Amino acid sequence: MWAPPVSTNFASIHLAALTDEAITIIREVAAECDNPVLLFSGGKDSAVLLHLALLAFAPARLPFPVMHVDTGHNFDEVIAYRDEFVASNDVRLVVASVQDSIDTGRVVEDNGPRASRNRLQSVTLLDAITEHGFDAAFGGGRRDEDKARAKERILSFRDRQGRWDPRQQRPEPWGVLNARIRKGEHLRAFPLSNWTELDIWRYIAAHEVALPSIYYSHTRTVVARDGMLLSVGGPVVLEPHEASFEAVVRYRTVGDASCTGAVESTAATVEDVIAEVAAARITERGATRADDTFSESAMEDRKREGYF
Amino acid sequence: MSTTSATVTPLPRDWGAPVAQRATLRIATAGSVDDGKSTLIGRLLHDTKTVFEDQLAAVVKASRRYGDGETNLALLTDGLRAEREQGITIDVAHRYFATPKRSFIVADTPGHAQYTRNMVTGASTADVAIVLVDARHGVVEQTRRHAFIATLVGVRAIVVAVNKMDLIDWDEAQYLSISKEVAEYIRALPTPVPVIAVPLSALLGDNVVEPSLNTPWYDGPPLLELLEEFDIAPANEVGARVHVQRVIRPQGGEFADFRGYAGVVAGGVLTVGDAVTILPVGIETTVTALHRAGKRVETAESGHAIVVELADKVDVARGDALVATASPTPPSVGEIVEVDVCWMTDQPLGVGSRYWFKHGSRTGRAVVAAVDYRHDLSSLEREPASELLLNDLGRIRLRLSEAIIADRYVDNPQGGRLILIDEATNTTAGAAMVAAHVR
Three-class SS of residue A233? Predict the structure, then answer.
């Protein structure tokens, strides 16, 4: 009969159970779908997701490619990290470029100093899924990120237009995954559904997952805008009334550089970050994503259009 | 927790002796619409300091917009626009919080009969269901339906949360009457589970996280403490099984000869050196190595995602099962399956209806050979039926296109559950639990 040791470490047991769950989901979707892909942005969630996927099939290599939807508004450190991770793990990388979607007229870019390419990614993503014939896309989305994400299934159906219909989700009893789709439809799989930001960081610590350096404290030239600190340069251009300044920051999330804010932080190590996240009083998206503060249902609206 | 002196309430207020403290408890809400499920979860999150400042600010703002007056904590889980506009829950929301004692995964489920399928989804992974009852209205049909479903899909215990006690002036007699009615109903179900009751007000927070001053007659703990102290009796030791999800073959490099079988352990502990039988073929071999999350391990327990190496080069494919040869309760193999089913789609199920099935890692076709009965939720009688309609619970027999390696759900839930998939729409139409040994 199983009995726990007296000094059981509950946090590590919880993390191990989440790890088992995620690996099981990844294996199941890979077995049921003909042509899956893993969405890899170089952010912490997709880094953990890819790490788990590598573990799921080890010592065999990853049986599917990874795809980066590249907005063109990148942090240099993240692209370097992406290329390094992919090369050192013998993983096949597909890049879908928002710039290409703009150049071919698939999407029209907003102009102005506050234009973001975040929303445009949905079109690029869906076009790439069609072009490559992917029938399932693994994403690093977590239910604790946003109230619309909190509603989504682990295996989430997308119709031929790539749309999510939150009112018609398939039941998912016991987490038994139903991967049946018709041609042209696809699935999104979220193995990290039940993880929190803290779980992600505990995994990064436990498995020594490398991350882009911008997740740790550094000095950066920023501008304060919409309650966030945006890195000056690249897509972020100072408006006449704005002034830049140097700040000691780190990134809590990494997305499109035009709308991802840094937070003031001196957390330089994984342990520092875990302590900081455990004490945080603001959600990661609330603190760092301009795109989610536009409206009450910003995430739901984007997801209906086919967003991650 | 010590045993309390139960003199007035009909139900015990503690879970009995702790068995095995668990790191994570999965809970789901249940009960009729407007009984306060989402508000209760909002209150739990709020009073455990799990709500972030920006989330609370957004809820305060949205409460004003929807004319809810004071801060409507239900908006913490009712995250879809259609839910906020109508003030109802449509689909399950999953939320997470932790106390110093354990981590909680919460599924807040919808009360509307129309969305019962989503309640099934939320309850199916829960260890404990919190069945809410509006103290003013008492037990209604949806209370019974949800309690029935919760026990059928396998929750291990039910908390009856008699809510809105503030609206009946904290009337003990009414509380006792309601909690007793629910407890007696659950005791009469085909698969009864332990029941505990709590009088509370989700709106005001009484007996949710903090004890209430309004219920001096209640000497039990508040809801959170019950959930923190709850310990699940260990699952039946039926013997370890692994339904093979995938064969891991590197085919080259230093691991060219590696051959491993990936899957999840259920039913018991698997140890290196154990004899295992490969089903359905019946060949016996030995476990030579186990891997979990990329590391070699000596043993693996129920729920662990592992890769198994075997002593012999044998033919094992996805859908097969590795079963500890010494299993006290071995699974059975067959194509004729008798199941209890929750029917979750508008198209009725009748004799001759055809579906896809998925059991473990095996999929195939299923045809309904017989509909034995449906459950009347009020009388709990088994009614003869020729078909099952949306939200019905009943017993049917299926003939499958290929044999499955299955346990009875009561013996080993992981090996005793299957889903039925509609052939036309591909939606998940039924949640089925194996009721008798397959043949």
Answer: strand
For A64, the domain range is 10-198+297-304
pTM comes to: 0.93
> Per the domain annotation, does A107 fall within a domain?
yes
Domain that includes residue B218, residue range: 24-229
Question: Which structure tokens are listed for B85?
Answer: 């506009």
> Hey, is the C-beta of A143 within 8 angstroms of any chain B C-beta?
yes
Flag whether residue A278 sits within 8 Å of chain B, measured between CB atoms: no
Percent above pLDDT 90 for chain B: 80
Residues B180 and B318 in one domain: no
A207 inside domain: no
- Number of other CB atoms surrounding residue A267 within 10 Å: 18
Whole-number average pLDDT of chain B? 92
A151 contacts in chain B (CB < 8 Å): 79-80, 91-93
- How confident is the model over B134-187, as pLDDT tens digits? 999 999 999 999 999 999 999 999 999 999 999 999 999 999 999 999 999 999
A292 part of contact set with chain B, CB < 8 Å: no
Contact yes or no for A296 and B301 at CB 8 A: no
Instruction: Based on the fold, state whether residues A190 and A243 are members of the same structural domain.
Output: no
Residue at B282 is within a domain: yes
pLDDT of residue B85: 87
ipTM field = 0.93
Do residues A109 and A239 share a domain?
A: no
Q: Give a yes or no: residue A193 inside a domain.
A: yes
Chain A partners within 8 Å of B126 (Cβ)? none
Q: Which of B85, B72, B141 is nearest to B111 (CA)?
A: B141
> Based on the structure, what is the number of domains in chain B?
3
Chain A environment of B92 (Cβ under 8 Å): 151
Provide the pLDDT for residue A212: 96
- CATH no. for residue A128? 3.40.50.620
Same domain flag for A183 and A225 = no
Integer-rounded Cα Rg, in Å, for chain A is 19
Distance CA(B402)–CA(B241), nearest Å, equals 19
> How far apart are the C-alpha atoms of A25 and A34, rounded to whole Å?
15
| pLDDT at A111 exceeding the cut of 80 | no
Residues of A in contact with B250 (CB under 8 A): 59-61
> Phi and psi (nearest 5°) for A82?
-55, -50
Q: What's the pLDDT tens digit per position in B284-307?
A: 999 999 999 999 999 999 999 999
Does B428 touch chain A if contact means CB atoms closer than 8 Å?
A: yes
Overall number of domains in chain A: 2
Interface A-B: count of C-beta contacts within 8 A? 184
H/E segment holding residue B247: strand B246-248
Q: Is B100 on the interface with A (CB under 8 A)?
A: no
User: B424 CB near a chain A CB, below 8 Å?
Assistant: no
The shortest CB-CB distance from B248 to any of A3, A60, A143 is to A60
